[in-house]
């Protein structure tokens, strides 16, 4: 390997006379990478790869190896370099180096400058909720967003980053220091989201440097990598050397551990997904309701994963809640009293009878208090000539009302499930009728209870209707009282009988026909 230039930053330019082997033979490292690619299906023959090149040894090595494989795999390569400008003149020199390297290799290169100030506006609203606030963390998020956009512009099938086995080892050690579970200890995946690939993840830094020396390839050194102010740098410079003294093969050992844990993590995720499908159901207003008894019966490891999966589902985030947040849900909500609520990771979780309910937080505990009665109300006057359809926007349903004449002694025949249709004696109440949500103090005489009076709140409790769903139930009301708890129970006083002459037929349907108005 060529000696570094003054300042220790630029470790020689590409020496074309030493690169002839790249175009005539396939090196041992390229054979190894090709085997990894086939086994992990990182890309296919004929793919277009956007290769990320910072100018450092790992990314330069990756570019050269992929160029070796390009003829036999019929690969199309494009090079991407992101300049954050965080290191002043060094950053500009990195960009110039990558441009020269691509020129020597006859490869197209796109160098893009992205400042962190600009990135804040570009990424607003799309950053993950758990994104690190550090400068390096923000730079990484900006870089990945810019690379995605670049891949879309050039039509690339995959984006290749130059992570190595040493990066994997450092990542595992960092997660160990944080007390992570199998998800964190699974480390860096070889492929993520079907687009990000790491062909060198099984290659050590020593292998990289040997390859660059053999091929006469220069590279740049990032001066910030030597600063002990970053935890990863301290792991690389202080912790790994100690572990290597205890076990010279520690990098490969940690790589093997990450593969084992990734497979086990994937298995547990699949088991958790099956339990979510079995225990959870979609509730009203975007909430997810999980059967508490079934959840509590699972092993603790699966309980945690089910909670994480449900939180991701209701928030739409790829990043699940932290361990402490999940434990709080299990301890205080799953094992707590009915009505117990907790806000974690952008989600409100609460226990409601036999369910654990999850709802994306919207600034207040939506649906947790029965005093919230902001549901709309609609008044309808029904006649023989004009049936009425009353939209109920909270559940995207419609209440259809139709007044019909019936000869005495003839009862109308139901065509919908009994709870979805009510036959009411129109001579026992007056028009107009109103569709609204329930109010404190509401009471009715449920059909089938021999005229016994019951508060609507108690009725909801008896049928174990979650509090968040109560306000969404449409109530058909006349001035004489509640006629029908729509989709639930008619009032005994107003039910149609054999003596009824005028029948108000009320139907609860999933949606109104297009264009129909009240």
Structure description:
This protein has helices at residues 20-24, 28-40, 57-73, 89-105, 116-123, 135-154, 165-177, 182-185, 205-215, 231-246, 250-279, 292-297, 300-315, 323-334, 456-462, 467-470; strands at residues 10-11, 48-52, 76-83, 109-113, 158-160, 191-192, 196-197, 219-220, 280-282, 288-291, 341-344, 347-352, 355-360, 378-380, 388-392, 397-405, 421-425, 433-436, 443-444, 454-455, 475-478, 481-485, 489-490, 502-509. It is α+β, with helices and mostly antiparallel strands and 518 residues long. It folds into three domains: 10-259, Rossmann fold, CATH 3.40.50; 283-360, Uridine Diphospho-n-acetylenolpyruvylglucosamine Reductase, domain 3, CATH 3.30.465; 378-509, no CATH class. The strands form six sheets. Strands 4-3-2-5-7-6 form a six-stranded mixed β-sheet, sandwiched between helices. Strands 9-10-13-12-11 form a five-stranded antiparallel β-sheet. Strands 14-18-21-22-23 form a five-stranded antiparallel β-sheet, with no helix packed on it. Strand 21 and strand 22 form a beta hairpin. It is elongated and about 100 Å long. The protein starts with 9 loop residues before the first strand and ends in a 9-residue tail after the last strand. Mean pLDDT is 81; it is low at 1-9, 12-24, 118-133, 363-375 and 512-518.
Rounded to the nearest angstrom, the radius of gyration is 33 Å
Corresponding CATH superfamily of the largest domain: HUPs
Average residue pLDDT: 81
CATH class descriptor of the largest domain:
Alpha Beta
Unreliably modeled segments: 1-9, 12-24, 118-133, 363-375, 512-518
Secondary structure category:
alpha+beta
Specify the CATH architecture of the largest domain: 3-Layer(aba) Sandwich
- In whole angstroms, how far apart are the ends? 81 Å
User: How many H/I helices?
Assistant: 16
Biggest sheet record: 6 strands, mixed
Based on DSSP secondary structure assignment, what is the total number of beta strands? 24
CATH overall fold name of the largest domain: Rossmann fold
Described by its quaternary structure, the protein is: single chain
Helicity level, as a percent range?
25-40%
> How much β-strand is present in the residues?
15-25%
Query: How many structural domains?
Result: 3
For the biggest β-sheet, the strand order reads 4-3-2-5-7-6
The coarse overall form would be elongated
